Amino acid sequence: MTFFKISLLFGLFLPLMGHAQVVKPDTLKSAAPVDSVASDSTARLKKEEAAKAAPVAASDPTGFHYKITADGTVTAGNVNRALIQVGGAFDWAVSQLFRFASNPSFAYGRQNQQLNEREILADFRTTYLHERKFYYLGFGAVEVSNLRKIHQRLTGGAGVGYKLLSRKNAYLSVTNVLLYEYTDFITNSAEVQDVNVLRNSTRVFGEYQWNNGRYSITHTIFMQPALNQPNLRWNGNLAFQIRLTSLIGVRTAVQNSYESVVAAGRKNNDFRWTTGLVLEVK
């Protein structure tokens, strides 16, 4: 009888114990392999670090780079003023032999219902043997300026360049070209006629970055004396940029331009200081 009771109790509890030990798998969840998660995270981090530490555009021998800057101001009341400025920098290494670049810009300004600025610059440059320290270049540009009373300015030339420094975070070069310029002023006078000259143009260009590309400085200086008449042009700019995200940054720049021959009623020197946003892809 005792054996019968023990067998009965054992028969009742055995199915319950077996049911408690069986755990049904969750068919809606699939655990990712540990190695796969780790490799994905590592790849993502490497990609982000590579983007942050991308070389300066001028020293990168391959690929397409562009930068777009924009700033402006609008005021109303005692003074009604509007000023909008947009600029770009495009650089494309199409092969180991040729590289194309352009730096177009546009500025528009009105004050008290009067047009003051409508500045347009479109240029195109090509470089041959750009991967070498010593290279060749040619370019052309079209310029319109209401501020300086220039109806149209056409320039074109060719020459040589030399890289003084070409590293991942620093680039410095000097170029020298023979340049032809034709400037058609909106108004002429007995003292100032349209300009038709040959120039020797020397340019010093530099681009530097640090802290994985978060901070960068660029500068350009042109010195362009005429060869067939007393006429000098020079201009330069210096820009400092802070990258806020992988695409957006803040940029401040100073620019100065001097021309010894200008339209009647215009000043020889123009200075500009701007601050705005930058969209940049490397």
Overview of this structure, please?
The chain is mainly beta and 282 residues long. It has a domain at 121-276. It has two helices and 13 strands. The chain has helices at 2-21, 34-52, and strands spanning 63-75, 81-93, 98-102, 105-111, 114-128, 134-145, 150-166, 170-185, 195-210, 215-225, 232-243, 248-259, 269-281. Strands 1, 2, 3, 4, 5, 6, 7, 8, 9, 10, 11, 12 and 13 form a 13-stranded antiparallel sheet that branches. A hairpin with a 3-residue loop joins strand 7 (150-166) and strand 8 (170-185). This is DUF481 domain-containing protein. Keywords: Signal.
The largest sheet, given as strand count, sense and whether it forms a barrel, is: 13 strands, antiparallel
Strand content: over 45%
Radius of gyration computed on alpha carbons? 32 Å
Q: Residue ranges: pLDDT <50 for 5 or more in a row? A: 1-10, 12-32
Choose one word for the global shape. Answer: globular
Instruction: Tally the helices.
Output: 2
The succession of helices and strands, N to C, reads HHEEEEEEEEEEEEE
**What is the terminal-to-terminal distance?**
89 Å
Q: What structural category do the secondary elements indicate?
A: mainly beta
Approximate helicity band: 10-25%
Q: What's the mean pLDDT score?
A: 83
Count all strands and give the number. 13
Could you write a compact summary of the structure shown?
This is DUF481 domain-containing protein. With 282 residues, the chain is mainly β. The chain has helices at 2-21, 34-52; strands spanning 63-75, 81-93, 98-102, 105-111, 114-128, 134-145, 150-166, 170-185, 195-210, 215-225, 232-243, 248-259, 269-281.
